[in-house]
Design goal:
The complex is a heterodimer of chains A (454) and B (334). Chain A is of the alpha/beta class and 454 residues long. Chain A is built from 22 helices and 8 strands. In chain B, strands 5-4-6-3-7-8-9-10 form an 8-stranded mixed β-sheet, with helices on both faces. In chain B, strands 1-2 form a two-stranded parallel ribbon. The two termini of chain B are 14 Å apart. Classes of the chains: A alpha/beta (454), B alpha/beta (334). Bound molecules: guanosine-5'-triphosphate (GTP) and magnesium ion (MG). Guanosine-5'-triphosphate sits at the interface of chains B and A.
């Protein structure tokens, strides 16, 4: 329901363009939408409050005469602030100058520590380090066996003393052993624990004291709700963690918890765990996360890419042409090439504000081969035909089809679709979002949303 | 008063073989799960909730409603549920149906929340012989632990014989984990190798249960993200295998939802319900500070009720869900 943030902002702010400036009332309206979107994404409500206050200040009086519409302008500011809040000073793992580097893993039950431990081991191994793991979860049945299995898959040796030993002693012993054996990195896997469990939090603090880790990492499930803040605060107190691993990001959770944790503890998110395979683990990109939290794709990079590709003048000219239905096939070809330069069309669709909301379009299966064909067809037209597609009839069609190695029917379709598009563009340029049905018809190839039935 | 095990289990014609002495809530030493939850509040958290509940209904103005909204949002009830609950309450106060008095409003609010939490209430259906219970849910939400706890209760309090099926053949050491729970609870277990077909493990388990005359079969499944369509399809397949092997089974399919889960919990339940019809939710990890408010949305939008709650990692840390207790705990009201 909040997938439509961008559209809702655009409609909320539709009359702003005439005035040129965002008033306090406009901004308040916009902030209400932003607040809902952030809450829906599980951003902690206190964080939401302070965040919207800050964004409001920046939006007030912001110049909306640029190439972006007021809704996009607000989204851009929100996006920038979100990215800023989530990123900040980029920090990576700290590696010891000489000797072993120790990493301590911590988190709630079921947050994904053991899997993250193996994945991190795999990543560090790939970077050429010799990694060992310490099995300090003596509580959950078969946790040690699990670590042994996934450790083996990651190519890391696992030190364990069974489930009857004391976790603090296991950790200290494993560290000695890892040093002896000349390992580069020791990752200590610990049992999941509740932040309110005083005994276990104390145990974690003691493991920390004994092993003096260079990095303490908190594993946070991307699906965590409002509780994330309290959890992070408690872990910060007991274990003074240095960074966060966000797990299960391959699901469809917006992951607002990540933002909350960063906002409240100031600790950066270092890694994201994104899949079943051990390789599905990577350094975290705050810019991608902002769009995800807003539920609207990678807005900023799209805006930036678009800005870099199309100069302001060109943009204005295009806008004018679109509004007057004077957009030609030549313009279309140019646009299409520019867009294709940005990357595969499928990705771009996802990045497009508003496209996320249109369920039909989300599943549009863009056929790059089809686009090649469209290019070939346009290239076989004369400049006159490109400017006035209504000229394309009878023998012209045959010539174009032959020239581009396509069928007459395909040339017909292109001309017809272009005509529909031109009308649609007029609507968009004059500020009306097109009806998704219409868009879907235009793009032709639409996959039905998958409905699973028994 | 609170929902008891007898309320939440439908054992059919089976007479309990032992007199259940489960009313632990009454004994002074054993507090209800929710009281324990309140007891264990961290300092910062307690400060916050006190701030909310003490000033919540002192005066009734815009701020009251706003704070109320915040309390519900904080409990992960979500913007939609929160808005509709608060709107309804505000409307009732405006219309004079509820006196504009702090205590009365609070009581009515708890009533509304409990009503939502009571949507489609029904006992866990274990009347068949053998009764088959299928446990599903996202990774790490507490499926295997919950199975161990359920098995223990059925054995110990009701004298039923329980057979577990280790159909999580995917995660490393999953079968070992379930084996430990089988040993702890006194249940039997059927398992296969890692990588074996989960459907065939379910098949073997039901066959074994028929042969042994077990009362209840509980099938553990691998944790999966609801977005992994191949794994969701696989779950549907496991269900079909069970159904084919024993018409009418599974008699009860549960999803475990971690109380810490935010708004994504609704999508989880929705996707799982599409893969295999769900009869209920087990709300786990309520011994932390999270409230599990997302189950309100699951009840409203999907009509799936919470049946059991998990509040700890030990065998005895499982309880019948009580809507009224839950509503109180959501607002930190005893
Ligand atoms: N504090 C607390 N921890 C719990 C509860 N239920 C389960 N856990 C813990 O949560 C972790 C995951 O539980 P599992 O039972 O393994 O969860 P699962 O859903 O079977 O996990 P996968 O099979 O890996 O998907 C373990 O460390 C459990 O001890 C609960 O009610 N409270
Ligand atoms: Mg399990």
């Amino acid at each position: 329901m909040f997938d439509q943030l961008s559209e809702r902002l655009q409609s909320t702010l539709s009359d702003v363009r005439k005035r040129g400036k965002l008033t306090e009332d406009d901004v308040d309206k916009a902030m209400r939408e932003i607040r809902l979107a952030l809450l829906e994404a599980d951003v902690n409500f206190k964080v939401v409050k302070s965040f919207t206050t800050k964004v409001k200040e920046r939006c007030l009086g912001a110049d909306v005469l640029g190439s972006l519409n007021p809704g996009q302008q607000v989204v851009k500011i929100v996006n920038e602030e979100l990215t800023e809040l989530m990123g900040g000073a980029g920090r990576d793992l700290v590696f010891s100058q000489k000797g072993i580097t120790v990493i301590l893993m911590a988190g709630l039950q079921g947050s994904g520590k053991t899997t993250a431990t193996a994945k991190l081991a795999m990543l560090l191994k790939k970077e050429g380090r010799n990694v060992a793991l310490a099995a300090c979860d003596v509580y959950r049945p078969a946790a040690i066996k699990q670590l042994e299995t996934v450790g083996k898959r990651a190519g890391a040796v696992v030190y364990q003393q069974g489930a009857d030993a004391d976790p603090v002693e296991i950790a200290a012993w494993a560290l000695d052993k890892a040093k002896e054996e000349g390992r580069d990195v020791l990752i200590i896997d610990t049992a999941g624990r509740l932040h309110v469990d005083a005994d276990l939090m104390d145990e974690l603090a003691r493991i920390r004291k004994r092993t003096r880790p260079h990095n303490v990492l908190l594993v946070v499930d991307a699906m965590t709700g409002q509780d994330a803040v309290g959890v992070a605060e408690s872990f910060s107190e007991a274990a003074e963690f240095d960074g966060v691993i966000i797990s299960k990001l391959d699901g469809d959770a917006r992951g607002g918890a990540a933002l909350s944790v960063k906002a409240v503890t100031g600790k950066p998110i270092l890694f994201a765990s994104t899949g079943e395979k051990l390789e599905d683990f990577d350094r975290f990109h705050p810019d991608r996360m902002a769009g995800r939290i807003l539920g609207m794709g990678d807005v900023l990079s799209l805006i930036e890419k678009a800005e870099a590709q199309v100069s302001e003048d060109e943009a204005e000219e295009l806008q004018r042409k679109m509004a007057n239905e004077q957009f030609t096939l030549e313009d279309f070809l140019k646009q299409m090439r520019q867009v294709r330069k940005m990357g595969p069309i499928g990705n771009l669709m996802g990045m497009m504000p508003g496209m996320g909301a249109m369920k039909q379009l989300k599943d549009v299966d863009v056929d790059e081969g089809e686009l090649d064909r469209v290019e070939a067809i346009i290239l076989s037209m004369t400049p006159e035909e490109r400017a006035f597609p209504e000229l394309i009839k009878g023998s012209r069609r045959r010539r174009i089809a032959e020239g581009s190695g396509t069928k007459i029917q395909q040339v017909n379709n292109l001309v017809k679709q272009f005509d529909q598009m031109r009308r649609l563009m007029k609507q968009m340029a004059t500020g009306n979002m097109p009806d998704p049905q219409q868009l879907a018809r235009m793009t032709g190839k639409v996959q039905r949303p998958k409905v699973r039935r028994r | 008063m609170s929902t008891s095990w007898n309320d939440i289990l439908d054992l059919g014609d089976r007479a309990p073989r032992e007199v259940p002495q489960v009313e632990e809530e009454d004994s002074p030493k054993k507090l209800g799960a929710f009281s324990r939850l309140r007891e264990s509040l961290s300092k910062s958290r307690r400060a916050l909730t006190e701030e909310i509940s003490s000033s919540l209904f002192d005066r009734i103005d815009d701020e009251t409603w706003e704070r109320l909204e915040e309390a519900l949002i904080y409990a992960d009830a979500g913007a939609t549920t929160t808005a509709s609950v608060v709107e309804k309450l505000e409307h009732e106060v405006d219309a004079g149906q509820v006196p504009a008095d702090g205590e009365a409003i609070k009581a009515r609010l708890i009533e509304i929340l409990a009503e939502i939490a009571s949507t489609n209430r029904a006992p866990i259906n274990l009347s068949a012989e053998p009764a088959v219970l299928l446990m599903t849910g996202v990774n790490g939400t507490g499926k295997t632990t919950t199975i161990g706890k359920i098995a223990w209760h059925l054995q110990k309090e009701f004298g039923l014989s329980v057979l577990l099926g280790a159909a999580d053949t995917y995660r490393a050491a999953a079968a070992e984990q379930l084996t430990t729970w089988a040993e702890r609870s006194g249940a039997g277990i059927v398992r296969s190798n890692e990588g074996a077909d989960p459907g065939s493990v379910a098949f073997d388990t039901i066959n074994a249960a028929k042969a042994r005359g077990s009362d209840v079969v509980i099938i553990d499944t691998a944790g999966r993200l609801h977005t992994q369509s191949n794994l969701m399809d696989e779950l549907g397949k496991v269900r079909r295998v069970i159904e084919k092997q024993l018409p009418g089974a599974p008699h009860e399919t549960l999803i475990s939802i971690d109380a810490t889960t935010g708004q994504n919990g609704l999508r989880q339940a929705k996707a799982f319900a599409e893969a295999t019809p769900l009869d209920g939710v087990v709300l786990t990890k309520l011994d932390g500070t999270a409230k599990g408010g997302i189950t309100l949305a699951i009840a409203t939008e999907l009509g799936i009720p919470v049946k059991l709650i998990g509040a700890g990692e030990k065998l005895e840390d499982l309880r019948p869900f009580d809507p009224d207790d839950f509503a109180h705990a959501l607002l930190d009201e005893g």
